[in-house]
Amino acid sequence: QVQLVESGGGLVQPGGSLRLSCAASGIIFRLFAMGWYRQAPGKQRELVASITSGGRTNYADSVKGRFTISRDNAKNTVYLQMNSLKPEDTAVYYCNMPPSSWGQGTQVTVSS
């Protein structure tokens, strides 16, 4: 059974940085694509970034140039490095293994 556990969220000022981590278990991690989604209050969950098993990445236009997704197959972990954070990045961030395995979410709040 797949388990995804996120960590690294918190409160940060505009312009600051955070790094989210998602530790996976119950799968042969290196074989699977992974993704990060977010959901702000009153909005639909949206894809932020994804990474294939081969390391190819994809980003939402709103985070290109600011966020970086990466993976460490030796640690069964996917990361989301978030720089130059904006108040509109405030959301609960979820780790996803397609199609339907989700972590519990971690809150990111960008506020002064």
What report would you give on this structure?
The chain contains no helices and 11 strands. The protein is mainly beta. It is globular. The chain starts with a strand and ends with a strand. 30% of the residues are buried.
User: What is the residue-averaged pLDDT?
Assistant: 96
Q: What is the terminal-to-terminal distance?
A: 40 Å
Taking Cα atoms only, what radius of gyration do you get, to the nearest Å? 13 Å
Low-confidence stretches: none
| SS content category | mainly beta
Q: Provide the β-strand percentage band.
A: over 45%
What is the makeup of the main sheet?
A: 7 strands, mixed
Shape descriptor reads globular
What's the SSE pattern?
A: EEEEEEEEEEE
Helix content: under 10%
Compute the number of helices.
Answer: 0
Strand segment count: 11
Tags for this model:
globular; seven-stranded mixed beta sheet; mainly beta; 0% helix; four-stranded antiparallel beta sheet; single chain; 112 residues; 11 strands
